[in-house]
Amino acid sequence: MAIEPRATYRLQLHAGFGFESAAARVEYLDRLGISHLYTSPVLQAAPGSTHGYDVVDHAKVNRELGGEEGFARLAATLRERGLGQLLDIVPNHMAIVTPHNRWWWDVLENGPSSRYAGYFDVDWDPPEAKLRNTVLLPVLEDQYGRVLEKGLLAVARTDGTFTVRYHDHEWPVAPHSIDALLAGAAERAGSDELSFIADAYSRLALSTATDVAAIRRRHRHKEVLRQQLARLCREQPDVGAAVDAEVARANADPEALDGLLERQNYRVAFWRTAAGDLGYRRFFDVNTLVGLRVEVERVFFDTHHLVLGWLDDGTVDGLRIDHPDGLRDPAAYLHRLRSARPGVWVVVEKVLEPGESLPESWPVEGTTGYDFMWRASSLFVDPEGERPLTDLYAELTGEPVDYAEVLRVQKHRVLREVLGSDVNRLTALLLEVCERHRNYRDHTRHELHEVLRELIACFPVYRTYVSLEAESVSAQDERYVAEAINVVQARRPEFDQRLLAFLRDLLLRRVPGDRETELVLRFQQVTGPAMAKGAEDTTFYCYNRLVSLNEVGGNPGRFGLSPREFHEAARAAQWKWPRGLLAERYWGEEVADRNLEYLFYQTLVGAWPIETARIKAYMEKAAREAKSRTSWTAPQTPYEAALQAFVEAVLADEEFRRELDGFVAALREAGQVVSLAQVLLKLTCPGVPDVYQGTELWDLSLVDPDNRRPVDFALRQRLLRELEGMRVDAVTARTDEGLPKLWLITRALGLRRRRPQPFSPHGTYVPIEAQGPAADHVLAFSRGGEVVTVVPRLLLRLGGQWRDTRVPLPEGTWRNELTDEDVPGGAVPAARLFARFPVALLSRRERP
Q1: pTM for this one?
Q2: Mean pLDDT over all residues of the chain?
Q3: Are strands 286-291 and 282-283 parallel, antiparallel or unpaired?
């Protein structure tokens, strides 16, 4: 590892903020105390991408960001300042924006005989005959026949290439399918040469060919024919005119055009068909992001060769792996990556449910930190508020308060309305497996479908990690499978218990066989999207008891976390994952029908003051994600218009605004202290702290895309310069500007830079228990015996009455890095530690 990770700064790159803009911020990041720039994906993405996760070409650097030269200049700028780079990569999927994705274009043109057919997770042999050796493209605005008859589908020619066009979509025409069109043009023009080309196209190897020699021969011949056709049309304009006339005739005749389209390696269809018939694995329910088969060695190296080169030459120091849960075998992928580049720093974007552990067999440094931020947030939730808030929520909304049941219901909804095609493919595979075992062959497709859907809905985590390479199934995976089966047995006693036992054995690889193993691996790839769409994309918007609990990696049904539980997790992190990231959040660090209205009021309190346009956009997203009255797939315009009018009316009410101002003012100071406490925990707990762009000042951002708004770096650079000559009292006097947060970050990262050892993987984490009447309102710990962190908690219940509460510091003299005061060892009054700054960061001056 070239540069030891100290802290990362996440930048979201896009056309308006590319490599040049990032390079211009490097000096500022260095002065802030950052060791690594942490960038969003930089490979060529779909045109106009605002995030980079829709990669279309793994062999190119995104031109909209500045291309290869711009990326090289950014890397050089980082090296000049002694900074490294943590790069976000996307191994799970690619965008199928054609023709920009040349691999996918080749698949659509050539079907199973494409050189890249094995790169994508496409089911070429589904039970439905109409989809065999065919890719379903659910892109049409209406039923296929209606779209065809409206003339919205058309064939076009450019030189020797033919395409099908529909609005801004474009797809290749299969070479063998143009023989009749060219034959008609040859007769029209009286061209023997064109007739020869038409015959040659008809004799091409079938697109279903999988023999390597046949595929190479087909590819070679079709390219020669394409060039011959282009030359002929160019040199003999009458031939070109005849071909174009045949194209125009086909476009004007729905029957003729339908005949041509039926010969393609894809089937264009109404977009709603994706809910039941889609034949390829997606990223969640995004039809334009197709799953990659990185488990295939050639695919791995073709999708990683640029990144591996950057690791070799020092351009990149570490990798953030996006969505490993989508992969067929995450452990095998990570081991291959580690084998290719043994020293690379790797963190994974893995969402852990409370109580779930990252598989210890994974050769990674840790997660991106969702789990940490949930713990850091829950630490400041008062468990005594659970009952009154639960009663209030039930009274105001009439909604159910059992989170587990709400989640199960919403997962069922997602499996039915959004992921139906995934469940159907899994059902077909289970039916095939049951046919191979006589005790289960009489179970019907419908019965198996219902059992699978219930099992997925009851699954307690995103997925298990049963691997082809592991000799046995982990105890954690066995526990989760058993838990899910037990819940299904209790909920659905009408299900055949022997079938459920068989499913349990299948999922734990106790039943040998290729198709049986395939079922396990496929099942694991479906439970993750079901949890993600069911929880964070649906339930988190319709279970609004306390929205600050609705964090990715959290459990809204769990109200608060004790200091003991926090310490246990921190010690485990120091032991197992000392270089994991701390941490990403969907909400800003300061944010915390009638159900939606309750969400609206909570959001206003957490983000106040907020512009009307921002809260309107958020409420529209929340309503669609909740899926109760409107949704992304079936937006209800009258309802959404009424919702927007409601938001505008509420915010236009001056009396309401005055009351809200007063209510928020009473909470603001406590909220700011909680924010500073969470930031200090992030900066000093085991792991590598991550600062998301712009959050070094107060951040009242909502979820994506609100948290991708432009950052005023000029303001932050100016404030950082001003801090250099300031004392703590002057800093706290400008709290409204966010200076205390910037001060805390620069001071803590400065300490980590000067004294890295206590925070290193070789350091220690030792809890410190406060003493006295308010001891439960303090969390403290020591790092390596050299640094002590002390933060207050549950301040509203405390009411500022520390009384004789003390924090027992190790012997010696300590320096408060945030106030520049000396503090003696021994039992120090909490009131003294928090007198001039809301949190305390102490470093040892001398040993006793």
Answers
A1: 0.91
A2: 92
A3: antiparallel
